[in-house]
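Priority: medium. Attachment 1 of 2:
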């Protein structure tokens, strides 16, 4: 079967991409508005892209009206964020924060998520997250126009909060203890509990 992306509507392209490029890590991003209101939202077009300098990338897409989401507007205004890794025990809470809320309503409050102050940036952290990267905005690259268009966020990592109980040998994270989840297509997610090792040549 040949799928011609150049002949498909954007919604079908999205479906093909999200069901084939799997599993995808989830960036659970907290920001604050210009008025100081907190926001928390998940994004599954996400990855680390550079260690020198330390940077990551995630992609909020425009809503159905073609308007950038609160995360993008907040970053344009305040230029700071915290990017959390989602462990299995936080999956239900993370999913709740995908709800479309008015900009003035906090997803932390809506989903009953405890927050703690960050060290280097103003947006709060998710208290239960095992890994949280405090970041500043490097840039936003806009791709496309209208509904579903992408806002590619490049973030510079300032520091990371890593739970002591997931660290082994003092300098690496045990994936079993982190227990991260991945995004598949539609409403489907996966665990990262089944693993294998292959020695590099």
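Attachment 2 of 2:
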């Amino acid at each position: 079967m040949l799928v011609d992306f150049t002949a498909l509507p954007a919604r079908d392209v999205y479906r093909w991409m999200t069901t084939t490029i799997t599993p995808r890590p989830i960036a659970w991003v907290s920001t604050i508005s210009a008025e100081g209101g907190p926001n928390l939202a998940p994004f599954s077009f996400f990855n680390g892209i550079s260690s020198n300098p330390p940077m990551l990338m995630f992609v909020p897409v425009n809503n159905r009206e073609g308007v950038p989401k609160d995360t993008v507007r907040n970053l344009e205004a305040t230029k700071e964020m915290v990017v959390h890794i989602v462990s299995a025990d936080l999956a239900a809470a993370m999913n709740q924060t995908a709800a479309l809320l008015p900009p003035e309503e906090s997803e932390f409050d809506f989903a009953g998520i405890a927050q703690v102050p960050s060290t280097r940036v103003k947006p709060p952290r998710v208290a239960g997250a095992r890994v949280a990267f405090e970041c500043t905005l490097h840039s936003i690259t806009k791709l496309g126009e209208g509904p579903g268009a992408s806002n590619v966020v490049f973030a510079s990592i300032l520091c990371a909060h890593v739970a002591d109980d997931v660290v082994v040998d003092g300098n690496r994270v045990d994936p079993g203890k982190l227990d991260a989840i991945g995004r598949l297509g539609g409403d489907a997610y996966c665990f990262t509990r089944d693993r294998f090792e292959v020695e590099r040549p």
